[in-house]
Amino acid sequence: MIKEKEWWPRLRTRLLFTGPTLFAFLTVMIVPFIYGIYLTFTNWDGIATTHTLVGFENYGKVFQDEVFWKSFGLTLKYVLFTVILVNTVAFLLAFGLTRGLKGQNIFRAGFFIPNLVGGIVLGLIWQFIFSNVLVFIGEKAGIPLFSTSWLADPQKAFWALIIVTIWQYAGYMMVIYIAGLMSVPNDILEAASIDGANGWTKLRTMTLPLMVPSFIVCIFLTLQRGFMVYDVNLSLTKGGPFKSTEMVSMHVYEKAFLSRDYGLGQAEALVLFLLVAVITLLQVYFGKKMEVEA
Amino acid sequence: MKRWNGLSVTVIFVLLAMIVSACGGSGGNSGSGETGANGANASGKAVKISLLNSKGEIQTQLEEAAKVFHEDNPDITLEIMAAPAGTSPFERASTLYASGNPPTMMMLDTGDVEKFKDRILDLSEEKWNADAVENATNLTTFDGKNYGFPLAIEGYGFIYNKAVLDEAVGGSFDPSTVKTRDDLENLFKQIEASGKKALIISPMDWSLGAHFLPLAYAGQNKDMAEVNQFMDSLKAGTEDLSGNAVLNGLLDTFDMMKQYNIDKKSPLAGVYERGPEVLGKGEVGIWFQGNWAWPQIQDFDTANGAYGFLPVPISNNPDDYGNQEISSAVSKRIIVDKEKSTPEQQEAAKKFLNWIVYEEKGQDFLVNQASIIPAFKNITIPAADPLGQSIQDYIARGKSQESMSNLPADHWAKVGASMQKYLNDSGDRATLIKEIEEYWTSVK
Question: What region holds the ABC transmembrane type-1 domain (chain A) (predicted)?
Fold first, then answer.
């Protein structure tokens, strides 16, 4: 750190390095965020040239909007299942692909690829699979589970969303877990083997505790992506059938842009932000407490 | 505790980024910049204008028309932008305005025009106002000024495949024989007896919510003023829908349709694309849809282009309003931006609109290329496709019912979802009616 006594040269040096980033950050993040908060106090419809201040009316409406809370509940359910399943699948893949299998790098790349496909495209591909391919196979092979489209049934459409999400993120989380697994020092594992620990004991008492940082990162990422899911939701089910799979982001978007209630939509987005912030902060805080040193 | 602080700040910022970019929308869209809307060339005479197209099925035809228009008017370059399928043109137009980069012209649905009226040009002085068909500009006129260019007349009802119906009735099928629900059911039975399926109900929310159900609103009375009064009392919550004869009649017809639906086993599985396929191939005789579906039907046509419309009957009395009428209205409006467009661009846009109405090439584009039923009396070219001809025929015989084209913006999505529930038998009629009533009392 350069030691300067005068405040101006000091500030100047700082601005030189942080200024451009700070400017970009302020203009594309902070200003829209604050303006967005301002809009929650108005009745703007998204296009009119004028709007009036309505105070906290929109926030009152957020708590009366049953559909918002219903889709928030559905999103919680979705997040619960995706976080557990994505991380389980990803960990198992990572575990399997660090055993020194033949061609494991190809497998790793293969499982990672779905993550490179955009959510919209992915949703459309799976829409085709669920409503055409599986139905065709189901009819030909006489499997009743697949003979009607999964996307036409509220329960099955929900599970279709979860399956696609797992497919999309398991590979990504797998990469993080692989890094975590490789960083577990070999010497302590060897020492444990000499002491007579079997594979399961080593995994449970050494590998898993040492991988807590990877779990924190992966659970945070899946939590946050689960809450914010929109693209797959839009292109796979469009919230249907009859709004039964409409996640909370989609509801907020439709409030703002379809029902043209921008103020209320923005207020719901802010409430959602606060709820998700609290949940993820708690997760990171308690996760950190579980960390151990080798 | 120190580490906790650093982490929490990072987490908050990441979330903030997600929220702002995913849900904020207020400032994040400025980067799109694919339009040349503001790129008017100040030095020369060349003007660049753009049009936001929300009729996806005519995108190529419009691009072609833009080229032809440019040949006729070398100074003006017209660029066609497509509104993404599945979103309403309003969403696209309002984001473009929010980013300060609106196209010169935008194609909107009728009900959307009013929201934009402070930002768009008054078109009342244009010559084509006098040549527009009756009532074409009523819904886009505010304080005596018309803001919208009526682009197309669109109608909807049961589209029939004449080849299938000929075979079913044994002889040439005459659409005027179907005047009541029983007639229709009889026809369905005849089709099934001939070994085909009677009809397909496409389960899209927009089809059920914006087209099928509104037949019950429009069918309330022949007098549009009475219909408007009905809508007002619906909003006020004073209308008892469960006892409404027209709505119940329409739903009775819908119940009957459900019995003969080819997708009865899984009524919500279908997608739009399945409709034209099974109708065109003659697997079913009838599909509930509008004349815009012609290009897709044509791809599968096995009936030598013999298609037409049947009205959706709501009762067993042939004289009840709606049993012989086809629902139609002016549907798409072109508006001209005045906020960001230069006067030269505005003039060029007006010129383009006039070109469509009065120039031979423009008319050719509108009617023959884009298969649009024009909303102008001076255009005498007959509709190019059988569905358009059928609609024109109903209008010419005075057998048309004004479609509801100024329903609230989220009506199709919300009421459409309720209709899907009803179609899937996941909710009974009482639930449906309750949901419709609740929608109307909660709408802004």
Answer: 72-283
- What confidence score (pLDDT) does residue A24 get? 93
Q: What is the least distance, in Å, from the CA of A88 to any CA of chain B?
A: 23
Q: What is the pLDDT of residue B159?
A: 92
Give this prediction's pTM: 0.79
Mean pLDDT in residue range A161-170: 90
- Is the separation of the CB atoms in B37 and B101 below 8 Å? yes
What chain A holds in terms of domains, given with CATH numbers, is 66-248+269-289 (1.10.3720.10)
Residue in A with minimal Cα distance to B264: A148
Q: Which of B12, B16, B21, B26 to mutate to test the interface with A (most CBs of A within 10 A)?
A: B26
CATH of B155-328+399-442, one of 3.30.9.10, 3.40.190.10, 3.40.50.970, 1.10.10.1590: 3.40.190.10
The mean of the pLDDT values for chain B is: 82
The span from the CA of A43 to the CA of A51, in Å, is 6
Question: Domain B36-152+331-376 maps to which CATH number in 3.40.50.11240, 3.30.230.10, 3.40.190.10, 2.40.50.1070?
Answer: 3.40.190.10
- Taking alpha carbons only, the member of B392, B404, B415 closest to residue B220 is B404
pLDDT of residue B6: 53
Q: Which two structure tokens, joined as six digits, stand for B322?
A: 């709606």
Is A179 in the B-facing interface, judged by CB distances under 8 Å? Answer: no
pLDDT at B12: 58
CA pair distance B90, B330, nearest whole angstrom: 17
- The pair of structure tokens assigned to A287 is 């996760």
**The dihedral formed by the CA atoms of A180, A181, A184 and A187, expressed in degrees to the nearest 10:** -160
In this structure, the number of other CB atoms found within 10 A of the CB of residue B44 comes to: 8
pLDDT average, residue stretch B258-268: 86
Q: How far is CA B326 from the centre of its chain?
A: 15
Question: pLDDT for B15-71, tens place per residue?
Answer: 555 554 544 444 333 333 333 444 444 445 788 888 888 888 788 888 888 888 888
**CA A116 to each of CA A112, A134, A246: distance values in angstroms, whole numbers, following the listed order:** 7, 24, 25
Q: Do B269 and A135 touch (CB under 8 A)?
A: yes
Would you call A49 and B118 a contact, using CB atoms and an 8 Å cutoff?
yes
Residue B285 has pLDDT above 90, yes or no: no
B24 neighbourhood in chain A, CB within 8 Å: 32-33, 36, 266, 269
Quote the ipTM score: 0.77
